[in-house]
Amino acid sequence: MSKKMKSGFDEHASKYDAWFMKNTNVLYSEVKLVAHFLKDSQDVFSVGCGSGLFEMILEKDFGISIKTGLEPSEGMAEIARKRGMTVEITTVEKAELGKEQYDTVLFNGTPSYITDLQAAFNKAFAALRPGGKIVVIDVPKESSYALLYNLAKAVGTWEHPLLKDVHPEDPYPIEFVKIANWRTTTEKVEMLQESGFNNLEFAQTLTAHPIYSNNVAEEPSEGYDRGDYVAIYAQK
To answer: Would you say residue 61 lies in a domain?
Structure first.
């Protein structure tokens, strides 16, 4: 995920992978969703690659190679580099992505950590070759997960009576929840269209209530009406 420099992701970088290792079915549900729109992609650039965990699994289990990206958190970028990625430590707002450099630009879990998302999509549009694609994946603000996250953010902890027995056993670390700004699917669609993207398609996963989402690794399905993790595919 894309993070602010010197944010909680620097101080708590190891917690990111550790959380996914405790929630492996959630992890693989999300990885399968990422892979869904990356089939046959070439020259994929990952905006906010985090620790490179997803990229490592995509190559190992799906044959999808993602070797370049950016990541604002130095701690996360260091882990991604050890996993074989070339990572620039910067925010997407400050990065120079170039013109018509890539076949695909991936935002996996990043929109909620990017301040100027419209500028990010504009840069992605310019960086794509004609006919290239953008894949935007995140927790929608209207989803069950985001509603829980925003409540936890508002009260500052998962240990609050309002959240008792309604969040997963191992909830997403509060340090990461506090610095996020979830957006609705509609907001992201409007921004993509404003940047010039078209031919939008949608897929989703984590369709069970968050309490039960780690019970099985879920296959992605079409649409965005019930998933807690939603992918938007669009073309230049």
So the answer is: yes
What does the alpha-carbon distance between residue 117 and residue 92 come to, in Å, rounded to a whole number? 9
- Cα–chain-centroid distance for residue 68? 16
Between CA 44 and CA 129, with CA 196 as vertex, the angle to 5 degrees is 35
CA distance 12 to 203: 30
Distant-in-sequence contacts of 153-161, Cβ < 8 A, 24+ apart:
153/177, 153/178, 153/180
| Residue 203 domain boundaries | 8-139+183-235
**Structural domain contains residue 167:** no
CB-CB contact of 41 with 64 (8 Å): yes
pLDDT per residue over 50-71, tens digit each? 999 999 999 999 999 999 999 9
Exposure string (b/e) for 23-37, b if CB count within 10 Å is 16 or more?
Answer: beebbbbbbbbbbbb
The pLDDT assigned to 12 comes to 58
Instruction: Name the pLDDT band for 3 (thresholds 50, 70, 90).
Output: very low
Q: Say how far apart CA 37 and CA 40 lie, in whole Å.
A: 9
